[in-house]
Here is the input.
Amino acid sequence: MTNHSFLRLLPVAALVGALAACDRAEPESAPADTAPPAATPAPVATAPVATSPAQPTAGGTVDASGLTFSMPTGWTRRAPGTMRVAELGAPAPEGSTEEAAEIAFFSFGPQGAGDAAANVARWASLVLDEGGQPAPHESTTEKVGELSVTLVQTTGVYQSGSPAGPKTPKPGFTLLGAIIEGGPQGPLYIRMTGPKAVIEEHRERWFGMMRSTRAGAP
Here is the structure.
């Protein structure tokens, strides 16, 4: 398979997630009949610093499981959910009301989580056709330096949700997946899911990130 085929996976039509938050307690106010001495200036209240929302990046790198990737311009970094070693977002095209695409990185140590073929089948089973069966998918394997990169693509009704939990059907979604073998900390699994139009907008950026894969992350 040539590098040209690496960039030209046919869109045909299948692939695992969580989050965290914390609350701040409001400080207690002083009793109404208590006032500071006249000579002492009243303390100035300062509001807690708000956490800035994720902002599009100007590029940079992403480190995951001993590998480094060039991060596409305009993508955002997110706090990784459960079982994820990194997480990114790819925005919908300007003027679109579609949700952003999600890019999740998973690592399970040197032993991995099954071979590439088993994971392709598992991801494919998450995207169904109109009859409720796994939608057609396509996969290919390429070499990037000393790494083996298996790519998978499928479009249909994506079954969003944790592996053992309830699923939310999302029609018209595309899944792009990559299984990278040969890294210093074991296989790395990367899955990009989102509305088909959003994935199409970022398809070349996705493949560019895969082509940039190299060993050397801390």
